[in-house]
Amino acid sequence: xxxxxxxxxxLCVAIxxxxxxxxxxxxxxxDLKSGQVKIELLPDAAPKHVERITTLANEGFYDGLKFHRxxxxxxxxxxxxxxxxxxxxxxxxxxAEFSDRPFERGVLGMARSRNPNSANSQFFxxxxxxxxxxxxxxxxxxxxxxMEHVDAIKxxxxxxxGQVDNPDTIVKMRTADKY
Length: 179
Hints:
Number of domains: 1
Distance between the termini: 41 Å
Order of helices and strands: HEEHEEEEEHE
């Protein structure tokens, strides 16, 4: 009977450990100058986009990149190494992975050109609900902690389509298991 209890205990520990490991790979930690933001990734909604974001984040791609377009009451956009909204990573563009997940406060979506299959490395975080984006852009994550730090990102002007002078940057971004 003791051997069965030991085996049962070991099995429970293994299950709990694998669940924690999965959670660590499906959580992004985003450091901003005002504090830390935790993001739940949504591989069930956008597996290829989640894979891209985690790959780039864990390579350090996003560290130091600007929030080049920040529109009050709408969203904050980043992920462009050129800092002007025209750049991306050296990886190929991704096909859209639209889902029924709505664009609401704290949701992360992939930025793209007019071509729905042109997402690469740029993404945005919603300050508020924007139903006109639903089924038009790929949702890949949502903020679970630290939205007040997203709210503190320096804003651009609506007249300049959110372009920010002397913008805030990403200090560091990694999955929790690589942080």
